[in-house]
Amino acid sequence: xxxxDVEHLTTSQWRNGGGATRxxxxxxxxxxxxxWRASVxxxxxxxxxxxxxxxxxxxxxxxxxxxxxxxxxxFDRTARVGEPLAFxxxxxxTAERRGGACRVLNIMVRRGRRxxxxxxxxxxLVPPGGHAGVFYVLRGHWRTDAAGRPLTAGQGVWWDEPDxxxxxxxxxxxxxxxxxxxxxxxxxxxxxx
Length: 193
Known about the structure:
Strands 2-3-4-11-6-9 form a six-stranded antiparallel sheet, with no helix packed on it. The protein is globular, with a radius of gyration of 16 Å. Helix content is 0%, strand content 50%. It folds into two domains: 102 residues, Sandwich (Jelly Rolls), CATH 2.60.120; 78 residues, Jelly Rolls. The chain is built from no helices and 17 strands. By secondary structure, the protein is mostly beta strands.
């Protein structure tokens, strides 16, 4: 497991000037074409989203008043804090903020190679064996063996297909809530066989 803190990740500005991305990981690390990718994006103004053909995306608002994503005649959904929103990266989307600046957790998987599911959790996280994943703290305090100290909002861990448990069987506990207000996002990233 690899711990991260969003505030210490490298920031890349969007070409259209509408925001910035902080990459948590693109797997396999160092390859030009990712199988899966996790990042946090800050959306500073309304405007177009980049399309990612052949990629499935899950977009979860972690801060802000909401973001409406639209593709004329095809897609029209509003993201709210802690509610994952899945869609095809093939879509030419436009983002419209419902207030000021927003922050989102983005999970992207290469279609046909990986599948992702993002859940809001408040209890212990025990990922299935053979799956990759990302755990992101929305609020409260959490413990993981990888971090060595309690994690708070904007921190987390990522991993790729840990050894140990057979594929699909429960693995070892990855995160445990330490406070009654603890809420996290868990992105389970499964290989497509």
